[in-house]
Design a protein that fits this description.
Number of helices: 4
Helix content: 25-40%
Distance between the termini: 21 Å
């Protein structure tokens, strides 16, 4: 696993922080458009993780985030994928809808 240091922003320019796009390509595209409309460059955008999970287009969502070039922290979904785990690691109650959907 590799890590990249993100330095604190030392000015008053806007920063966008979002998390949990969970494979929702349209949500990431909307966030990217909003950042562009507000003049927030990719280097001032931070995703707090869980880029992939339950929604329908994980590969395209990852491609969109990579193309955008924003900072991404590893969420529990990314950590579980890196460890080749059988589920997302959220600790859902056994038999719950989220438990069933998170099984690899």
């Amino acid at each position: 696993m590799s890590f990249r240091t993100v330095h604190a922003f030392d000015d008053d320019a806007p920063v966008m922080v979002f998390g949990g796009p969970v494979s929702n390509l349209q949500a990431v595209q909307a966030l990217r458009a909003e950042a562009a409309a507000r003049g927030i460059p990719a280097e001032r955008v931070v995703c707090t993780g869980d880029v992939v999970a339950y929604c329908g287009d994980p590969a395209a969502t990852v491609a969109e985030v990579r193309d955008w070039g924003c900072h991404v922290l590893a969420g529990n979904c990314e950590r579980q994928l890196a460890e080749n785990a059988e589920d997302c690691g959220c600790g859902f109650d056994e038999g719950s809808t989220c438990d069933v959907l998170s099984v690899g």
